[in-house]
Amino acid sequence: MGLAVLLFAGGLLFWIGLRSGQRRWLLSGGSLLLIPFAGMVASGSIAPVILPVLAGGGILVWALKTPRCPPGALQIAAGLGYLLLVLALGFRQFPGLTPFSLLDVSGKEVLFPPEKLLLLALVPPLVLTPLQPDRWRWGCEPPGKTFALALPVTLLVLIPLALFLEHLRPGWTHAPIPVLVYGLAYNFLFVCVLEESFFRGIVQTLCMRWARHWSRSSHADGWGLIIASLLFGGVHAGGGLTFVFLATLAGFAYGLVYYLTGRMDYAVFLHFAVNTVHQLAFAALPTPA
C-alpha cells in the first residue's frame, strides 16, 4: 500500500509541477517516484541491464526539449528514436520489463506495468506549446465554459452510440473499494494523462504544424485534428472496430477541447470523465476473438 501511495502521489505532484512550472512540485514528485522505481529495479520488474538505455531515453527527451538538439537530420533522427521508444513502451514490447506486484487486495495481487512509470517520465515533459486556434474565437476566452459545454455533449454522443452499437451494457461496478480507488487513480494518471500528453500535446500539435506548413487552406488545423484522432482510434484496435470508431470520436472531442482552450488539463479531465462513467456505470461487452 505504501508504494502505491508514493507512486500515485509522486506522479500527481510531478504532473502538477510540469503543468504549473513550479519546480518544487516537480522535484517533490520526482523524488517520491524514485522510491517505487527503486523497488521495481530491486524486484527485477525493471531489469538493471536496461537502465543505461532508459537513461539514454531521458537524455533524448532533455535534448529535444531544449535547444541542445540542432534542427535538421539530427533532430529528425532524435524524434524518430523517441517515437520508437514511446511506442515500444506503450505497446509493452520493450524488453526487460515485467509487471510489478503493487498491492494485495483480499489475497489477490494487483500488478502494475512498469512501462507506465517510465512513460510518465518521458511523455508529459515533452508536451509542445499548443497552437493558437486559426480563425477560431469561441473557446479561447472562457476555457472553463468550453469544457463545461464539451463534457455533457461528449457523454451524450458517446454513451447512446456505444449502447446502440452494443459495445456497452448498463451495470454498476461491484469492485471492492480499494480496487476501485486504485483503478480510478491509475486511469487518471497512467491512462488519461499519458494518452492526452502524447496524442494531444505532441501528435496533434505536430499534425497541425505540418498541416499549416504544407496547406494554405483555412481547414489545416481541422485536418491535423482529424489525423491525430484517427491515430488515437487506431491504437485501440485491440478492442475491435467498434471500439476504434468510438475511440476516434472521443479523441476528436478531447482534441477539440485542447485546441480551443490550449489547456492540457481540460483534455485530461474530459478523458477521465468519459473513462470514469464507463468504469463505474457500464461494462464493455466481449469482443470477437
Q: How would the global form be characterised?
A: globular
Q: What is the subunit arrangement here?
A: single chain
Mean of residue pLDDT values: 91
The total of beta strands comes to 4
Question: What share of the residues lie within helices?
Answer: 55-70%
Approximately how much beta-strand content do the residues carry?
5-15%
- The rounded distance between the terminal residues' Cα atoms is 36 Å
Which structural category fits the helices and strands?
mainly alpha
How many H/I helical runs? Answer: 10
The biggest sheet, with number of strands, parallel, antiparallel or mixed sense and barrel status, is:
2 strands, antiparallel
Number of domains: 2
> SSE order, as H and E?
HHHHEEHHEHHHHE
Give me the side-by-side strand order of the main sheet: 1-2
Unreliable segments (pLDDT under 50, ≥5 consecutive)? none
Radius of gyration, CA atoms, in whole angstroms: 19 Å
